[in-house]
Write the structure tokens for this entry.
Amino acid sequence: MRITDVRVIVCSPGRNFVTLKIVTEDGVHGLGDATLNGRELAVAAYLTEHVVPLLIGRDARRIEDTWQFLYKGAYWRRGPVTMTAIASVDTALWDIRGKVSNAPVYDLLGGASRESVLVYGHANGADPEETATAVARLREQGYTAIRAQSGVPGLESTYGVPASRGRYEPAGRGLPIEHVWRTEPYLDFVPALFERLRREFGPELHLLHDAHHRLTPIEAARLGRSLEPYHLFWLEDPVPAEAQESFELIRRHTTTPIAVGEVFDGIHACQQLIERELIDYIRATVVHAGGLSHLRKIAALAELHHVKTGCHGATDLSPVCMAAALHFDLSVHNFGIQEHMPHSEETERVFRHAYEFRDGRMHPGDAPGLGVEIDEALAAQYPYQRAYLPVNRRDDGTVHDW
Ligand code: CS2
Ligand code: MG
């Protein structure tokens, strides 16, 4: 089953996506997401210039060997660009394997470990009133787990809240917007937000919050402790995670569950966090952490240490990644929860998929492979448009984590 053609498809239906399409001599094709928000063309070039020539003629069945060939063979290992490129190849080969086996990918990953996948939705608002209204709306749609983000009094902007009403899409076309960040108003405000939401929606609803990498370990410890009365499902990315040992201080001071990992490029980025049981959920995902083959290894390590999966699922991860993540979620034993941020109608028209949302849960579908297809002709009508994520500065002008 030789690979005879590989295409790197860049399009922008509502936002930018990079999709890898691998085709075999038998006419079977597989898709892989290769989207790295704000740096899309770097991955597209890495694939086109360096990976595609290596794939032509290879046996599409040798998934692990191809992974190792691209990882060790590159000599220069890891990093978001490399691991996103490898992830897209790995995902496409699993898609082909499923189609050739006439089986959904979750079946190849060990079969279903549950009937469906618990997901969480995004509720955001300019203030607690609007956020509470958004939570109520998601409840009506059947969500039993909801991430709440709100505008903070005294801060012009904050993560997760759109500048104007409508869809939240952080990557803006043109050059990066610069936001001003101050930690104190945020630390004072967030517990009050969750005090209100718990009072209004009761003890059952799973509530999540994303601190989006902006705190120091001691600030994160303080926030975690002040949120304990509201028993969050998780507090996400409290601090930048390069220094894994810095989570020890957080762990020492709070029992609020911690979720980390959406920016991780592989197992080495989270080995200490998992082995020292400094986190409760690992958010590494298919597209940025080396594909299904590597994500399974991260999950296996996590299982040893009571850490569950909580895969990243924002809209800058394409429906191809979402499909692959749901196959992973349905089969992996230590599954925790899956992020669900619905894509725009434009995106949904370009990427047709078998996965479905029902009553706060999702299922990848039983179509052979991943169950997702890209309409290349339609995609071609949405040319790439450079876009950047915002940059944060503290009020003295110092660059800060966004
Ligand atoms: C966020 C993301 O969904 C999340 O948890 O952290 O929206 C993140 O900001 C984007 O994926 C960045 O590209
Ligand atoms: Mg996040």
User: Anything to note?
Assistant: Residues 80-100 form the longest helix (21 residues). The mean pLDDT is 97. The CA atoms of residues 76 and 82 lie 9 Å apart.
